[in-house]
Amino acid sequence: MPAHHGSAGPTRPCLAWRCGGELAWEPEAPDDFDLRVLDGDYSMLRVAEHSAQVPHERRERIENQFKGEGEQLNTLVCTPTLELGVDIGALDAVLMRNVPPSAANYWQRAGRAGRRHRMAVDVTYAQGTGFDQSYFREPLKLLSGQVEPPRFNLKNEVMIRKHVHAAVLTALLGVHRRAVEPERGRVDEVLKRCFPQSLRTYLFTPGGEVLQEVLDLSALGALIQDHHGR
């Protein structure tokens, strides 16, 4: 009498080829994960990569699809690009493939989930390294670690120069948003010429020849001077 786990017909006939017996009820085995997957309300993973290797415009599109109400994406595989300052919406769970290097990293990554519903599942895989295993044995050490604010050495001229450049560019983009024609068109032209989307413009002529002189940024200097202090 063949066993079955589902519903049967009124006369309980065996549906196997050339089987003259009847079906007998057999309780579902607790270790039969195949049946549990079929019975459960599961959905397929729809995955996208979110990393520095993905162009910025595509990353934004992926974030919007992931946060949307539709079913386009339900899983992101991320590097630290999604660690800091990104509200990813009603995220239910975060899975970390190794123990983060510091308490700040852990809190930032775990904090991506539960921002809307205030409840989430955070899972961290501890690899076989001494670092991971030490926190596996004492996980509260990572939670109670000191979180230091970001900082850099003010004597580091390279870093200061980068921050000043970023601040100036942010201010010019603000000018572009607020300006009206013809100044808006001027700002747009200067920014596109001095901050091209490709490094090729810095190195080659439109015909593909190597530039013999450094790219002329005098228009950018004039633009900064015109809007200095505004």
Concise account of the structure shown:
The protein is mainly α.
Give me the number of helical elements: 9
So what's the oligomer here? single chain
Strand residue percentage: 5-15%
User: How many extended strands?
Assistant: 6
Approximate shape = elongated
Structural class: mainly alpha
- Rounded to the nearest angstrom, the distance between the terminal CA atoms is 88 Å
Low-confidence runs (pLDDT<50, min 5 residues)? none
- Average pLDDT confidence is 80
- Give Rg in angstroms: 29 Å
Helix content: 25-40%
Physical arrangement of strands within the biggest beta sheet: 1-2
Which features does this protein show?
230 residues, mainly alpha, two-stranded parallel sheet, elongated
Set down the secondary structure blueprint.
Layout: E1 3-4, E2 24-25, H1 33-39, E3 47-50, H2 56-67, E4 75-78, E5 93-96, H3 103-110, E6 121-124, H4 130-137, H5 140-143, H6 157-178, H7 183-194, H8 200-203, H9 218-226
Parallel strand pairs: 1-2, 3-4, 5-6
Note down, in words, how this protein is organized:
- The protein has 230 residues and is mainly alpha-helical.
- It contains 9 helices and 6 strands, in the order E-E-H-E-H-E-E-H-E-H-H-H-H-H-H.
- It has a two-stranded parallel sheet. Strands 3-4 form a two-stranded parallel ribbon. A two-stranded parallel sheet has the order 5-6.
- Strand 5, helix 3 and strand 6 (121-124) form a beta-alpha-beta unit.
- Helix 6 (157-178) runs antiparallel to helix 7.
- It is elongated.
- The mean pLDDT is 80.
